Amino acid sequence: QVQLVQSGAEVKKPGASVKVSCKSSAYTFTGHYVHWVRQAPGQGPEWMGWINPNNGGAKLAPKFQDRVTMTRDTSITTVYMELSGLRSDDTAVYYCARDVNPDHDTVTGYCDYWGQGTLVTVSS
Amino acid sequence: EILMTQSPATLSAYLGERVTLSCRASQSVLTNLAWYQHKPGQAPRLLLYRASTRATDIPARFSGSGSGTDFTLTISSLQSEDFAVYYCQHYHNWPQTFGQGTKLQIK
Protein backbone atom coordinates (compact mmCIF):
# COMPACT_ATOMS: atom_id res chain seq x y z
CA GLN A 1 0.00 0.00 0.00
CA VAL A 2 1.06 3.59 -0.55
CA GLN A 3 3.21 4.89 2.30
CA LEU A 4 5.07 8.04 3.12
CA VAL A 5 7.41 7.52 6.04
CA GLN A 6 9.04 10.52 7.66
CA SER A 7 12.18 10.90 9.72
CA GLY A 8 12.05 11.13 13.49
CA ALA A 9 11.52 13.98 15.89
CA GLU A 10 14.11 16.73 16.14
CA VAL A 11 15.08 19.23 18.82
CA LYS A 12 16.95 22.26 17.56
CA LYS A 13 18.25 25.53 18.94
CA PRO A 14 17.14 28.88 17.57
CA GLY A 15 19.05 29.82 14.44
CA ALA A 16 19.81 26.21 13.50
CA SER A 17 18.48 24.28 10.49
CA VAL A 18 16.47 21.09 10.30
CA LYS A 19 16.08 18.66 7.41
CA VAL A 20 13.09 16.33 7.40
CA SER A 21 12.91 13.37 5.04
CA CYS A 22 9.89 11.65 3.56
CA LYS A 23 10.32 8.27 1.90
CA SER A 24 7.63 7.14 -0.52
CA SER A 25 6.77 3.58 -1.46
CA ALA A 26 4.26 1.53 -3.46
CA TYR A 27 3.58 4.10 -6.14
CA THR A 28 5.41 5.84 -8.98
CA PHE A 29 7.52 8.35 -7.08
CA THR A 30 7.95 10.72 -10.00
CA GLY A 31 4.25 10.70 -10.79
CA HIS A 32 2.90 12.71 -7.89
CA TYR A 33 3.86 16.07 -6.45
CA VAL A 34 4.63 16.05 -2.73
CA HIS A 35 3.40 18.81 -0.46
CA TRP A 36 4.73 19.89 2.91
CA VAL A 37 2.29 21.08 5.54
CA ARG A 38 3.01 22.03 9.13
CA GLN A 39 0.83 22.34 12.17
CA ALA A 40 1.89 24.34 15.19
CA PRO A 41 0.39 23.55 18.60
CA GLY A 42 -3.22 24.70 18.77
CA GLN A 43 -3.19 25.96 15.20
CA GLY A 44 -4.68 24.82 11.92
CA PRO A 45 -2.49 23.25 9.25
CA GLU A 46 -0.31 25.58 7.20
CA TRP A 47 0.72 24.75 3.67
CA MET A 48 4.44 25.31 3.08
CA GLY A 49 4.90 24.34 -0.54
CA TRP A 50 5.32 21.47 -2.94
CA ILE A 51 8.02 19.69 -4.90
CA ASN A 52 7.72 17.92 -8.23
CA PRO A 53 9.78 14.74 -7.76
CA ASN A 54 9.96 14.33 -11.54
CA ASN A 55 12.13 17.38 -12.13
CA GLY A 56 12.87 18.74 -8.66
CA GLY A 57 10.96 21.95 -9.23
CA ALA A 58 9.41 23.45 -6.12
CA LYS A 59 6.96 26.16 -5.21
CA LEU A 60 6.95 27.70 -1.75
CA ALA A 61 4.44 29.77 0.12
CA PRO A 62 5.68 33.37 0.34
CA LYS A 63 6.47 33.27 4.04
CA PHE A 64 8.83 30.33 3.53
CA GLN A 65 10.61 31.39 0.36
CA ASP A 66 13.70 32.68 2.16
CA ARG A 67 14.10 29.81 4.60
CA VAL A 68 12.86 26.56 3.04
CA THR A 69 14.54 24.28 0.52
CA MET A 70 12.80 21.26 -0.94
CA THR A 71 14.79 18.57 -2.70
CA ARG A 72 14.43 14.98 -3.76
CA ASP A 73 16.52 11.88 -4.39
CA THR A 74 14.82 9.71 -6.97
CA SER A 75 17.20 6.80 -6.38
CA ILE A 76 15.72 6.30 -2.91
CA THR A 77 12.25 7.78 -3.58
CA THR A 78 12.72 10.37 -0.88
CA VAL A 79 11.91 14.05 -0.66
CA TYR A 80 13.42 16.46 1.83
CA MET A 81 12.35 19.71 3.41
CA GLU A 82 15.03 21.86 5.02
CA LEU A 83 14.06 24.84 7.17
CA SER A 84 16.79 27.26 8.20
CA GLY A 85 16.97 30.09 10.71
CA LEU A 86 14.75 28.25 13.14
CA ARG A 87 12.69 30.25 15.61
CA SER A 88 10.53 29.17 18.51
CA ASP A 89 7.40 29.67 16.39
CA ASP A 90 8.67 27.02 13.97
CA THR A 91 7.90 24.43 16.63
CA ALA A 92 5.34 22.24 14.89
CA VAL A 93 4.56 18.87 13.42
CA TYR A 94 5.70 18.78 9.80
CA TYR A 95 3.89 16.54 7.33
CA CYS A 96 4.64 15.44 3.81
CA ALA A 97 1.65 14.47 1.69
CA ARG A 98 1.09 13.14 -1.80
CA ASP A 99 -0.89 15.17 -4.29
CA VAL A 100 -3.78 13.19 -5.74
CA ASN A 101 -2.85 13.85 -9.37
CA PRO A 102 -0.79 11.07 -11.00
CA ASP A 103 0.22 13.32 -13.92
CA HIS A 104 3.82 14.22 -13.17
CA ASP A 105 3.34 17.67 -14.73
CA THR A 106 0.20 18.65 -12.85
CA VAL A 107 -0.52 19.55 -9.26
CA THR A 108 -4.11 19.51 -8.05
CA GLY A 109 -3.55 20.80 -4.53
CA TYR A 110 -5.11 18.29 -2.18
CA CYS A 111 -3.60 15.13 -0.78
CA ASP A 112 -4.67 11.53 -0.51
CA TYR A 113 -1.77 10.04 1.48
CA TRP A 114 0.12 11.66 4.31
CA GLY A 115 3.23 10.89 6.28
CA GLN A 116 3.01 10.26 9.99
CA GLY A 117 4.40 13.69 10.83
CA THR A 118 7.70 14.84 12.30
CA LEU A 119 7.75 16.94 15.45
CA VAL A 120 10.33 19.69 15.30
CA THR A 121 10.90 21.48 18.58
CA VAL A 122 12.88 24.71 18.63
CA SER A 123 14.13 25.59 22.08
CA SER A 124 17.18 27.17 23.62
CA GLU B 1 -4.53 34.45 0.19
CA ILE B 2 -8.00 33.01 0.76
CA LEU B 3 -9.02 32.77 4.40
CA MET B 4 -10.95 29.67 5.43
CA THR B 5 -13.17 29.96 8.50
CA GLN B 6 -14.69 26.92 10.17
CA SER B 7 -17.52 26.80 12.66
CA PRO B 8 -18.08 25.84 15.31
CA ALA B 9 -14.62 25.47 16.81
CA THR B 10 -15.90 22.64 18.99
CA LEU B 11 -19.00 20.51 18.61
CA SER B 12 -20.29 18.07 21.20
CA ALA B 13 -22.63 15.36 19.97
CA TYR B 14 -24.04 11.95 20.85
CA LEU B 15 -23.39 8.67 19.11
CA GLY B 16 -25.91 8.23 16.34
CA GLU B 17 -26.56 11.95 16.04
CA ARG B 18 -26.49 13.83 12.74
CA VAL B 19 -24.02 16.72 12.71
CA THR B 20 -23.13 19.47 10.29
CA LEU B 21 -19.80 21.30 10.20
CA SER B 22 -19.38 24.56 8.32
CA CYS B 23 -16.57 26.09 6.31
CA ARG B 24 -16.57 29.52 4.73
CA ALA B 25 -14.08 30.95 2.24
CA SER B 26 -13.24 34.65 2.09
CA GLN B 27 -13.76 34.54 -1.67
CA SER B 28 -15.17 32.03 -4.11
CA VAL B 29 -13.30 28.76 -4.47
CA LEU B 30 -15.98 27.27 -6.72
CA THR B 31 -16.04 23.62 -5.61
CA ASN B 32 -12.28 23.34 -5.12
CA LEU B 33 -12.61 22.26 -1.52
CA ALA B 34 -11.43 19.22 0.42
CA TRP B 35 -12.28 17.94 3.90
CA TYR B 36 -9.91 15.99 6.13
CA GLN B 37 -10.32 14.07 9.37
CA HIS B 38 -7.44 14.20 11.84
CA LYS B 39 -7.00 12.12 14.96
CA PRO B 40 -4.19 12.68 17.48
CA GLY B 41 -0.96 10.96 16.54
CA GLN B 42 -2.26 9.93 13.13
CA ALA B 43 -1.88 11.23 9.63
CA PRO B 44 -4.75 13.33 8.31
CA ARG B 45 -7.28 11.39 6.26
CA LEU B 46 -8.86 12.75 3.10
CA LEU B 47 -12.64 12.52 3.35
CA LEU B 48 -14.06 14.57 0.50
CA TYR B 49 -12.82 16.51 -2.49
CA ARG B 50 -14.51 18.68 -5.06
CA ALA B 51 -16.72 19.70 -2.14
CA SER B 52 -18.89 16.59 -2.26
CA THR B 53 -17.01 13.61 -3.71
CA ARG B 54 -16.08 10.97 -1.17
CA ALA B 55 -12.50 9.74 -1.25
CA THR B 56 -11.67 6.05 -1.51
CA ASP B 57 -13.11 3.91 1.30
CA ILE B 58 -14.91 6.78 3.00
CA PRO B 59 -18.27 5.65 4.44
CA ALA B 60 -21.48 6.98 2.95
CA ARG B 61 -22.43 8.65 6.24
CA PHE B 62 -19.98 11.42 5.29
CA SER B 63 -21.35 13.89 2.79
CA GLY B 64 -20.44 17.36 1.63
CA SER B 65 -22.17 20.21 -0.08
CA GLY B 66 -21.69 23.78 -1.13
CA SER B 67 -19.98 25.90 -3.73
CA GLY B 68 -18.50 29.35 -3.94
CA THR B 69 -17.89 30.45 -0.36
CA ASP B 70 -20.08 28.27 1.86
CA PHE B 71 -19.61 24.58 2.46
CA THR B 72 -20.83 21.93 4.85
CA LEU B 73 -19.67 18.51 5.95
CA THR B 74 -22.45 16.29 7.31
CA ILE B 75 -22.06 13.08 9.24
CA SER B 76 -25.42 11.36 9.18
CA SER B 77 -25.06 9.08 12.19
CA LEU B 78 -22.03 9.54 14.40
CA GLN B 79 -19.91 6.51 15.14
CA SER B 80 -17.32 6.32 17.89
CA GLU B 81 -14.48 6.46 15.37
CA ASP B 82 -15.75 9.79 13.98
CA PHE B 83 -14.70 11.85 16.98
CA ALA B 84 -11.75 13.83 15.67
CA VAL B 85 -10.79 17.22 14.31
CA TYR B 86 -12.09 18.11 10.84
CA TYR B 87 -10.39 20.58 8.50
CA CYS B 88 -11.48 22.12 5.26
CA GLN B 89 -8.89 23.16 2.68
CA HIS B 90 -9.34 25.02 -0.58
CA TYR B 91 -7.21 24.28 -3.63
CA HIS B 92 -8.70 26.91 -5.90
CA ASN B 93 -5.49 28.83 -6.27
CA TRP B 94 -2.06 29.19 -4.76
CA PRO B 95 -1.42 29.11 -1.88
CA GLN B 96 -4.03 26.62 -0.76
CA THR B 97 -5.11 27.25 2.80
CA PHE B 98 -6.80 25.34 5.60
CA GLY B 99 -9.42 26.27 8.12
CA GLN B 100 -8.65 26.23 11.83
CA GLY B 101 -10.65 23.08 12.33
CA THR B 102 -13.74 21.83 14.15
CA LYS B 103 -13.15 19.48 17.04
CA LEU B 104 -15.95 16.92 17.24
CA GLN B 105 -16.23 15.43 20.69
CA ILE B 106 -18.50 13.02 22.49
CA LYS B 107 -21.31 14.52 24.56
Describe the fold and architecture:
- In chain A, a hairpin with a 6-residue loop joins β4 (34-39) and β5 (46-51).
- The model of chain A has no long low-confidence stretch (mean pLDDT 95).
- Helix content of chain A is 0%, strand content 48%.
- Chain A is built from no helices and eleven strands.
- Chain A is mainly β and 124 residues long.
- The N and C termini of chain A lie far apart (40 Å).
- In chain A, strands 2, 4, 5, 6, 9, 10 and 11 form a seven-stranded mixed β-sheet that branches. A four-stranded antiparallel β-sheet of chain A has the order 1-3-8-7, with no helix packed on it.
- By secondary structure, chain B is mainly β.
- Chain B has no helices and ten strands.
- A six-stranded mixed β-sheet of chain B has the order 2-10-9-4-5-6, with no helix packed on it. Chain B has a four-stranded antiparallel β-sheet with strand order 1-3-8-7, with no helix packed on it.
- In chain B, β7 (62-67) and β8 (70-75) form a beta hairpin.
- The model of chain B has no long low-confidence stretch (mean pLDDT 96).
- The A-B interface holds A 37, 43-47, 59, 61-62, 95, 97, 100, 108-117 and B 32, 34, 42-46, 49, 55-56, 87, 89, 91, 94-101.
